[in-house]
Each structure stands twice: as C-alpha cells, then as structure tokens.
C-alpha cells in the first residue's frame, strides 16, 4: 500500500492534487490510518505521533502525487450572547465539560447536543444550527484534541 511521505500545511504546497480525502474532525486527528480518497486511491498515513490535519492541507504520497484534505461538514451549533460577559460564562461552562469548542471571534461553535444547547440557552446564549467543518481549539495541552476526565482528582458530578 502506498504511504504518505509528508504532510504539507495549507498554503505551503503547490501542485495539482490527484484526489481529495474528506474527513470529519475525528478522522483529521490520526497517527496511523488507512484512508481512501474520492477517486478510490487507498493510502496509509503512518506518522510517529498523531497529526492534526486541517482543511486545505496536502498529503504527499511516496510516488510524489498529492491528496488534498477536505474538512467534512458536520452538524454544529453557533453560540452568541448579548454581551462578552455572557459569552465568557458560556465558554467557561463548555470548557468545564471538556467540550471541543471552536472559537470564531464573538461566536463559539460546538457539536449539536440537545442537553448542552439547553444549558447554553439557560445561560443566555443564542443558538444557530449550522453545517460546517469543525476545527476546535486544541486545549491547553495542544495536539488538536481536548483531554478526557481521567487527568485530575475531582468529580464533575
């Protein structure tokens, strides 16, 4: 199976891709995976550590060809508030629940979740459902992912 030789960041590569691979947020954060492009080309991503692929990045294959990364649209919700104090409070509550959150200026973007959406409305947030690529912040420890609950000694109950 042909392998990815290099990951090139969006805006840093030139050339014409032979195909595109469309991936959701989870599938764009991988160390090792067999992927299939839209033209049927299968290839192996095998990196020493997990990489966070972003929309417009390029995967250079061993044969010198390129596969362009496309971020798949997902069911999300944009959150705004009447003022920055309310938006900061909402952001704190989302962070306290370790929810992947994308920061878009005066808007927060999360995955659709009726329980969280209800909480946001109770905190004074306004919700607008969207279908868009999801590229949340990587968290304090980076690497494109937020962390799980096994890292500290208190409960979120």
From TrEMBL:
Tell me where the transmembrane regions lie. Answer: none
Q: Report any one BP term from Gene Ontology.
A: protein folding
Similarity-based family: Belongs to the UreE family.
**Stated name of the protein:** Urease accessory protein UreE
Places the protein is found:
Cytoplasm
Residue ranges of the UreE urease accessory N-terminal domain? 3-67
The annotated region (Disordered) lies at 135-157
Functional summary from the UniProt entry: Involved in urease metallocenter assembly. Binds nickel. Probably functions as a nickel donor during metallocenter assembly.
Q: Which residues form the signal peptide?
A: none
* Primary localization: cytoplasm
- Is Cytoplasm given among the entry's keywords? yes
A single GO molecular-function term is: unfolded protein binding
Which SMART domains does UniProt cross-reference here? UreE_N
List keywords of the entry alphabetically: Chaperone, Cytoplasm, Nickel
Q: Which residues form a coiled coil?
A: none
Q: What are the Basic residues biased-composition ranges?
A: 146-157
HAMAP family per UniProt = UreE (MF_00822)
Q: Name one GO cellular component term.
A: cytoplasm
The lineage's top-level taxon is Bacteria
